[in-house]
Amino acid sequence: MPYNLLKQKNSYFKNLSTEAQGVFVSRLYNFMADKSFNGKEGLVITDEIKVLISASAIQLTFGLKDYMISHLSDINVFPHIFFSNYLKTNLKGLNTQNGILSLSWNDFKEGYATEDDKLNLGLHELTHALNIDLDIGGNYDEHFSVYFRKWELIASKDYNDLKEKRNTFLRSYGGTNMHEFLAVCVEHFFEIPKEFKKQLPHLYNFLMLMLNQDPDNITGDYKVRVYPEKELQEIGSSYGKKESDLNEQKVNNYFNEECYSLWRNFLQRNGIYLAMAATFFGLFGGLPLLIWFWSTTIISIGAVFIIFFICGSLGLLQWKYVKEYLEMEYHQFSMYAFSGFGMCLINIVFLLNTFFPIHSATRSFDIVTYKTGNQGMEITLSGEGNSSSLERNVASYFGDNYRAFYKAKKITITTSTGIFGMDRIKNCDFVY
Predict the structure, then answer these.
(1) What is the tens place of the pLDDT at every residue in 337-376?
(2) Phi and psi, residue 119, nearest 5°
(3) Same structural domain for residues 369 and 393?
(4) Are residues 311 and 363 in the same domain?
(5) Residue 419 is part of a domain; what is its CATH number?
């Protein structure tokens, strides 16, 4: 049934190759199974309603990997224009951040009945749903997210022109706000791609990159034939210099933001889990490691605490940059900064210092006293460069072989210095 219905009612699907149609239908079934369709005001939900509304979503996201619009859970379908108790007005369509999309079925059908009138309720409202997915940090497509940031910069001038009625190509409703501007542009993008590309090539090209498809490429499954990033950069720069406050540097900076955007998206999805894992390792793995490094490195416990405090403070500096992505209170983040990030970082410092020596030195010391105390053997040395940390490490180095000290008067110690300037004992020889 979906194939015949879609070929009759959806020209976008009809123009796809057989293979691409198979992908489209597979996605459509997944989307339908994931959403709850609810008939309102006496409307009975039919397979046709479910298929055609789902097809609108798949058309919009056909170039993306994540096509489910994850926050969207319920689709309420009214027979005609409906009254919104929330907005206290009559509407054709409405999206909410709690995952509910409401549509007028009559207006939805009219959107596909006339294919070049720049009006398509399904694409319009599902664009809002895709936008909301991004706003609330849903399981959105990262490719869409990266280019959406660039779109906002490039589109701002055209949005202001439309708002001030200096642009008559796009439907005036797009001047309401940037969300409506994007939805109106998407309607033009799919319904009159050739004219859109001719009139506003910079907007069309960025939409093409953001949605990863080209509606003008009817014979090629709407694939983007060439990613014109260099061309777009030149368009954006010259466009900005001539007609808006945008400048070349500003546009170039947005193109360089891709890695940052991907990292930000990764943090939004996984940041809290990374913080929990780091804190768990810091408490149960990092602390024993730190004790071992302290016992094998010529450094005072006071210096260890200072390094730990510095590492924890560096962890706290992250708060400015990640607080909008992590669902944590400041006191919880402080625990992560010191017990997680700080503990892990100080262990990395000791690890690198241990396994990347830069030079070694040999020194001799007089053995003043040695005895067995509460914590094992205790040694007192004299000579240039002596310290309690050195004595502690010499005692640890020999462990149970303290009887070797009975006749020894001096000890020659060879140490290696790591890349962070901390010494470790490589060898000890007695002088009798």
Answers:
(1) 999 999 999 999 999 999 999 999 999 998 888 777 766 6
(2) -125, 120
(3) yes
(4) no
(5) 2.40.50
Same domain, 58 and 21: yes
| Residue 233 shares a structural domain with residue 281 | no
Give the list of residues 6+ apart from residue 114 with CB closer than 8 angstroms, or none: none
Are residue 167 and residue 97 in the same domain, yes or no?
A: yes
pLDDT at position 269, please? 64
User: What are the Cα distances from residue 12, in Å, to 6, 25, 79, 216?
Assistant: 9, 13, 24, 11
pTM of the model: 0.57
Q: Write down which residue in 255, 283, 313 finishes a domain.
A: 255
Q: Same structural domain for residues 40 and 184?
A: yes
Task: Give CA angle at 112 (110, 115), nearest 5°.
Answer: 110
DSSP 222: T
CA distances from 218 to 60, 118, 213 (A): 15, 18, 10
C-alpha 108: how far from its chain's center? 34
Q: Which domain holds residue 418?
A: 357-431
- The beta strand positions in 80-156, using DSSP E, are 82-84, 89-91, 93-95, 100-104
40 with 171, same domain: the answer is yes
DSSP one-letter string for 187-200: HHHHHSHHHHHHH-
- Give the three-state DSSP class for 372: strand
Compute CA distances 6 → 10, 45, 213, whole Å: 5, 17, 19
Q: 311 near 349, Cβ under 8 Å?
A: yes
**C-alpha span between 432 and 430 (Å, rounded):** 6
Say if residues 240 and 248 touch (Cβ distance below 8 Å).
yes
